[in-house]
Design a protein that fits this description.
By secondary structure, this protein is mostly helical. The protein has 7 helices and 2 strands; from the N terminus they run H-E-E-H-H-H-H-H-H. This is WDR36/Utp21 C-terminal domain-containing protein.
């Protein structure tokens, strides 16, 4: 039976529309700088009068270093996904790659799909196919595939002519999607019929 991931909708539902959301949230006008900005130096009161407070340079350096380390760790996570995907050779490896993508933030997932190298397109589709065959995370597969096709449709069109394996993977994925959707459709009809029967029985 096909199952869903159980993740909150905020983790995947807006993924295909992130570019629209970003465009909508862009500021209409650029931020205006004030004509005259006040200039303050922090000061500390003393017994005689006051003295300027010494800036904590070490803390500033540490903060910048932490920011750089955070950015570096994000890049390492992002590159590790592509590496895992390219090295995947069986279902277990594809599931591992999917799980690593699944727990990233929605913007990181979008970024990962955007920067996929052309040689990894087939592997990405095989990953989705493997997840579908395991009957899990149906809505995530739909969201990821939607973004993937939106970004790479031109590459896929050209690559399918050169790569027969890619065309076969797309065909298998299409068949598996149709089969999975038929299962969900039947389940929804069954639940609707059951609810209608309960409603009628209680009246």
């Amino acid at each position: 039976m096909v199952t869903l991931s159980g993740l909150a909708p905020s983790r995947w539902v807006n993924l295909p529309y992130l570019d629209v959301i970003r465009e909508r949230n862009k500021p209409i006008e650029p931020v205006r700088k004030p004509k005259t900005a006040p200039f303050f130096l922090p000061s500390v009161s003393t017994l005689d009068s006051f003295e300027f407070e010494k800036m904590d340079v070490d803390a500033d350096v540490i903060e910048r270093r932490n920011v750089l380390m955070a950015k570096r760790s994000v890049l390492e996570i992002e590159s590790s996904f592509a590496e895992t995907l390219l090295q995947a050779s069986d279902d277990a490896h594809f599931i591992t790659a999917f799980e690593s993508l699944k727990w990233m933030s929605i913007s990181t997932i979008d970024f990962q799909i955007h920067i996929l190298p052309e040689r990894a397109l087939n592997s990405f589709l095989k990953m989705l196919l493997t997840v579908l065959r395991n009957h899990c995370d149906f809505e995530l597969v739909q969201a990821y595939l939607s973004v993937f096709l939106k970004i790479n449709r031109n590459k896929l069109w050209i690559s399918c002519i050169k790569d027969d394996d890619l065309g076969k993977t797309l065909s298998k994925l299409s068949d598996e999607l149709r089969k999975s959707w038929e299962e969900i459709d039947q389940l929804m009809l069954l639940n609707a019929s059951l609810l209608q029967w309960i409603k009628t029985a209680l009246l």
